[in-house]
Design goal:
Layout lengths: L1 H6 L36 H12 L12 H18 L9 H22 L11 H22 L8 H4 L5 H11 L6 H20 L6 H20 L1
Helix pairs in contact: 2-4, 3-4, 4-5, 5-7, 5-8, 7-8, 7-9
Length: 230
C-alpha cells in the first residue's frame, strides 16, 4: 500500500482479516483456530490496518465514485467499531499496544480529513469553523506521525515509520499556511510541517519524485508567504 501511494499506482494486494489472537495461542498440530479475543493482541495492528485498507479503499483511488455522504458514514462506522473492539482496551504503557492505537487514530484522522475536504463545487461560503477543524485535523495527522517517529519506546519499529509519508496531508497544510495569519495555531502547524519534512529528507536520500518536487515548491511558497506577514 505504501509503495503504491508513493509511486501513484493502484494497489495490487487486497488483504483479508486474520484472527485476533496472540502468538502463544497457536500450538503445533492444532486442528482448530482458537476463539478470537477482544482488545489488543500481537496481530491487532495488522488487523486494524487491513480493515482500513479494505473498507476505505477509495481513499487512494481518485477515480472512485462513492458518494460523499456514504464515505463519511463509512469512516464514522469503522472508527466506532475499531474503538469498541480494539482500541478502548489498549494498554498505552505497552509499546506495541500504544503503537496500534496511535496508527489506528492516524488512519482515522486522515480518513476524516479526506472525506470532509471541500471539492471544486463547494460553495464560497464554506464555513470558516469547518475549515479550521479540517486544518486542525491535518495538523493532528502530522502530530501522530511525529509521535511514531520520535518515541523511544517504539524505536525497534522505526524502520516501519520511514515509509509513512502523508503527502496529501502535508500538501494541504502547506497550502493553508500560505494564507493563514501568523498566530499560535499556524506557528505550531508550521513547526510540525518542517519537522516532518526534514525527517522525510533525512530518512531517504532518493526523494526525487515529482511529488517531492511539488512539496518542496509548497515549502518555499509557505516560507515566502509567512515572511510577508511578519
Amino acid at each position: 500500500m505504501l509503495v503504491s501511494e508513493d509511486q501513484d499506482v493502484p494497489r495490487q494486494i487486497y488483504p483479508g482479516f486474520p484472527a485476533n489472537i496472540d502468538d502463544d495461542d497457536l500450538i503445533k498440530d492444532m486442528e482448530v483456530i482458537p476463539p478470537e479475543k477482544n482488545g489488543c493482541t500481537n496481530i491487532t495492528l495488522a488487523i486494524v490496518t487491513a480493515h482500513f485498507l479494505t473498507e476505505l479503499h477509495w481513499l487512494s483511488d481518485i477515480h472512485d465514485e462513492t458518494p460523499p455522504e456514504q464515505r463519511k458514514e463509512a469512516v464514522q462506522m469503522l472508527g466506532k467499531r475499531m474503538e469498541e473492539r480494539y482500541l478502548q482496551s489498549c494498554d498505552l504503557d505497552q509499546p506495541l499496544e500504544w503503537m496500534t492505537a496511535t496508527i489506528a487514530r492516524l488512519h482515522l484522522s486522515r480518513a476524516w480529513l479526506f472525506v470532509n475536504l471541500p471539492s471544486p463545487d463547494t460553495p464560497d461560503d464554506f464555513q470558516s469553523t469547518t475549515k479550521d477543524m479540517l486544518f486542525r485535523t491535518g495538523v493532528e495527522v502530522l502530530e501522530f506521525m511525529h509521535l511514531l517517529q520520535d518515541n523511544e519506546l517504539t524505536e525497534d519499529w522505526k524502520w516501519l515509520w520511514k515509509g509513512f509519508r502523508e503527502w496529501y496531508v502535508m500538501g494541504y497544510i502547506l497550502t493553508e499556511l500560505c494564507s493563514r495569519p501568523l498566530d499560535a495555531e499556524s506557528n505550531h502547524a508550521w513547526d510540525m510541517a518542517t519537522k516532518m519534512y526534514k525527517q522525510w529528507l533525512g530518512n531517504d536520500s532518493t526523494m526525487e519524485s515529482e511529488r517531492v518536487k511539488s512539496l518542496a515548491w509548497l515549502m518555499e511558497s509557505a516560507i515566502a508567504s509567512r515572511a510577508t506577514m511578519m
